[in-house]
Amino acid sequence: MKRTETIKRAKLTAARAEKCLTLENAAELIGCAANTLSRWELGRMTPSAYNRARLCAFYGKTPEELGLVEEQSAPVSPLSALPDTVQAFLNADLTTHLLALVCTHQADGRLLQNVLARTIEEFPMTTGHDAVLTRREALRRLAMLPVLFSSRDSTRKAVHDTLVQYAAGITACEYLGRGDHEDIALAFSLLTAYVPVLRTIVKDSSMYRKEAAGLAAQCYLLIDVLGFHMESPTVAIAKGYAQLAVTYSQESGDTVLCLRALRNLTWAYNHIKQFEPALQTIERARLLMEQSRTPLPPQLRSSIYSTLAVIQVKNGVSATPVLGLAQEAFFGPPGDSENLVHVSFSYAQLMRNIGITQYYQAEYKEALQSFAQVIDPNDLSAKVVMRSTTHVGLLNTQTKATLKSPNRDLEQVIALWKAALQGAITLQSQQCFDEASMTYEVMEGVWPGEPRIRELRDLVVHW
To answer: Distances from the Cα of 395 to the Cαs of 67, 91, 225, 246, 402, in angstroms?
Structure first.
C-alpha cells in the first residue's frame, strides 16, 4: 500500500476513534450507510464534495485533517458543473439524478456504472428517514430504462446509447438483487430480458462486441446468483448461467469479469459435488489473478482465495495458508480497476467462506467464532451490512456448525434453524429453503424422537 493511501485511511478512521464511535454508530449520526462509511475509511471510495463537507462538519476537522483532499483519479460526475440550485434538487431526488447521469454520459459503460454506484451508495446521507423507500423506487425506474427505451436502430449512436442504458439497468439490478423477494424477482426478470439484445450486439457489431459481451457477462453473473434463489440451484446450474458468464467474460477480455465468472462456476460445481472440476476452475482463476499485470480489487482477490480455501478442503487439501491470503487480501490496498458494482464481496461473505472452510476441517468451534464476527449469536441479527440472502445463508451454515459442535445445545439449534427457515420463506429463496429442509433432517437424526424437533416439521411449508 502506498504511504499516502495508508495516511488517508488512518486519518478518517482516527477521527471516528476520537469520538469513541463504532462504524455503525458513526454512520447513523452522519446519516450514511455503514458500508459507505467503511468504503471511505478504507480509501475504496471518495466522498462527493457535499459529503466531504458533511464529514468535516461532523468531525470538526478540515478536509486535509481527514485525508479527504479530492484526487484527480476519482470518478467525476458529468453533472458536477451544474449550478448549486440544480445540484441541490438532484441531491434530493435520486430518480432524477440517476436518469440525468445516464442522459448526460458520453464515455464507456464501465465508467457510468462506477459513477452510478457511487451515487447510489452515498444517497442515504442526503435523504433522511425516507431514504430506503426513495432509493428502492429510483433503482426500479433505472432498471426499467433498457426495456422502455432500447432502440432497434443499428447505427453507431443508437448502439452506443443502448449499451449505456443497459449498463445503467444492470447497475440498478445489482442493487435490487441485494433486497427482498420482490426486488430480487424484478431484477431476475429484467436481467433475463436484457440478455437477447446484448447477445445480438455481440453477434452483429464488431465495434461494440467486447463492450456488449462484458454487459452480457454481468447479466449472466447476476442471473446465476439470483437464479439459485428464484429457480433453485439445480435449475440454475442446468441452464448453464455460470458457464455462459465465463464465455461472455472471455469474449469481453475483462479480467475482473473473467475472475468473477470462474468463481461462480466453481460454486456451481461445488453444489453438485463435482469437487475436482471445482478445484480446477478456481485454480484457473487463481493463476489468472496472480498473473494479472493490472492491480486487482482486494475484495475480488479475497473472494478468489477464500473460495479456493473452501474447495481445497473439500478435496482433502489443507486450506489454512490460503485462508491467510484471503484475509490479507481483503484489507489490502485498493486496486486501480476497482468498481463498486463489479466487486461486491463483503466482509460477511469472507467470514462465511472462512467459517465454511473451518466447518469442513472439523474446526466447529472456530467456525462458530467466525460466524459470530458477522451474526450476533444472541439475537441472530446482522452485525455488519450484508445482503438478505447472505444473512439467511449464514444462519443455515451456523445451524449446521452448531449441530456438529461437541457442546451442541438443542435450544440454540432450534432458534438458529427457525430463523433460517423463516428468512428463506420471507425471501422465497429456494436455495435457502432447501438448505433449511436438509438441516432439519440432520436434526431429526441427531435427536431422534425428540418432541421439540418433531413439532418443527409443521413449519417446513413451501410458499
So the answer is: 38, 37, 18, 30, 10
